[in-house]
Automatic annotation (TrEMBL):
SUPFAM superfamilies: Nucleic acid-binding proteins, PIN domain-like
Domain PIN residues, every copy: 66-183
Originating gene: DIS3
Name of the protein: Protein DIS3 homolog
Domain annotation RNB: ranges: 468-787
Cofactor needs: Mg(2+)
Species annotation: Aythya fuligula (Tufted duck)
Amino acid sequence: MLTSRTFLKRTRAGSVLKVVREHYLRDDIPCGAAACPLCPPRPDGGPSALEERPSGAASSLCPGPHYLLPDTNLLLHQIDILEDPVIKNVIVLQTVLQEVRNRSAPVYKRIRDVIGNPEKHFYSFTNEHHRETYIEQEQGESSNDRNDRAIRVAVKWYNEHLKKMQNEEIQVIFLTNDRNNKEKALEEGITAYTCEEYIKSLIANPELVDRLACVSDEGKEIESGKIIFPEHLPLSKLQQGIKSGIYLQGTYRASRDNYLEATVWVHGDAEENKEIIIQGLKHLNRAVHEDIVAVELLAKDEWVAPSSVVLQDDGQNEDDIETEEEKENILKTSDNKSMLRPTGKVVGIIKRNWRPFCGMLSKSQIKEARRHLFTPADRRIPRIRIETRQADTLEGQRIIVAIDGWPRNSRYPNGHFVKNLGSAGDKETETEVLLLEHDVPHQPFSQAVLSFLPKMPWSITEKDMKYREDLRHLCVCSVDPPGCTDIDDALHYREMENGNLEVGVHIADVSHFIRPGNALDEESAKRGTTVYLCEKRIDMVPELLSSNLCSLRSNVDRLAFSCIWEMNHNAEILKTRFMKSIINSKASLTYAEAQMRIDSASMNDDITVSLRGLNKLAKILKKKRIDNGALTLSSPEVRFHMDSETHDPIDLQTKELKETNSMVEEFMLLANVSVAQKIYDEFPEFALLRKHPAPPPSNYDILVKAAKSKNLEIKTDSAKALAESLDKAESPASPYLNTLLRILTTRCMMQAVYFCSGMDNDFHHYGLASPIYTHFTSPIRRAYLWSIKGM
């Protein structure tokens, strides 16, 4: 069956275009119930999602077997409840999924993950393409009302459809927090409950009540509450004001050290008023760190200086606004009057950037109280008021809390308990907090991801050999930190018959094992990088690849991408070749072992001779880079010494850099430059490159000021001038001053960015003083590289 809509649309050129949209309806879409004899099997041949006899928590409201069907707002606000293992057998309509996708990408991803979990028995029903559940929008009916009606129609169809099953009758329960929608559903004979009613009916799982989100509107304040904050302007007024220049849009960044102060980094290219200071509770106006806000500038006589006062919110007298005003007066009477900055106030929120927050519960002093304050681990986040019956259990625990809303009459936002992570101070718990707070994906790889790994035992086939150059005869070796198992680069060096030198960089061919678009590729792209902790690492790709098949270990055949240069003895490149290859590394060395070979007078084997040749060329390459203006900045790395039994860190040591560290670095940089030039030559519009913009002069103010305080001059006219002045910035009285200035210089730098060559004409990498650059190296721990190697 086919329905169609025809409408006219005016193009940018002014012409009128007739558009016909066809909508296909079918009657063979399965309902998802396992015991249904009326529906065809799933097209993919997989099992039905909904259980034949629905399991899960017993409800006092509906004791019989039942499926749940939530509406859009319930799914958006109660996703924490739906993710709980207790909640199973849920029907998610296409109408609901589409609305959620348009309104919240994070929630949409979470519900897709739940649908994909076979243990949860969630089923996505395409009601918009089913002949008996699709409805047209009526004249004068809003899109929201039409969607609510479509959901009710689907619930009625399900209940009528499931009555035809021969075994015990299964009921579909409609869950909605919309009062009007619920009333209409009850009028139509649909069994409907709010989320709170249903969850409170699960007598065996009282802990779920704590996870209910507070769904009251911000405008519907508690009647007895005193209004503390100004009202947020509606989005339409904010957009008009931003367009006319009355308001400025930017990212809100709270202070770690002063809870009554924040800055807003204004979006756009204008240098004037780029950073706006916000001071005072009412001016902060319920914005949370990383929200996108609209700001109104205050009159110049109301501008303030950044405060040097440290203020932490103790949360003891949460409704004592007079105390807050006294603290604000402290800010105004602080010094730095000569450093007045543009100052403003938040007038509205354009986009909330709330996420689940880790922290600890501050138990109320009132006996048997259910409302308590939660203190986030990140000091930039305000305390959150939650309601829980588990306060005694959660005291001293690290927990996760989500914000639900922030009414005008509440000193703190309202939220709900999500999860207990474990005891505060426990190593595993604190590691979990660290990863969650920095949004590092660290869950075990799913079976769907692992299913795309090669079957073991794995070996190189004749087909692999056919399209690769066999370089196993070369004296290839790798040089890495001690304990490294994810070896993704190796080097070789040899003298040629014509007197020139051949140098090769060989990079693990990860793209051979990870095909575009599959679950393994998507998971690796989501992780983006390997994260190293003091006692473990969070791999970007499964260990079978990172520490085995893609690791260029010694004495095993491995697949690689190779960049091979013919050079003269002055490290000048005469010829460059790129190829897919097969290598067999002759040694996996640490930096210290490689350095020992280079320095040893008694060792003259092929590997040692190669290392000496590579080291000699690397010194020449480094000198050329520095002469061109490349910066040598200081970013000290540390190594943890671990207890062999407990695996706890027991000592900390700064990593000692050797010549071999610089040797490997120089050839990795050279390979990245060579590959960047190659892909740009081959794909001038689509080459994926990386550039480092030159910082604006104002970025260097703090560096110049710091050097001047020690009677030193830092020139910032160019990268070369900066590098030369840093080399001269020495003080016999302060031997670490130069290192500190280089660390400070790092903080003045702009962020390096990836870009497509067809979108920008400026390819220059400021820090490396290179006209073109990309990332070809480190593919095991950097997801960007596969796109280059797939070209």
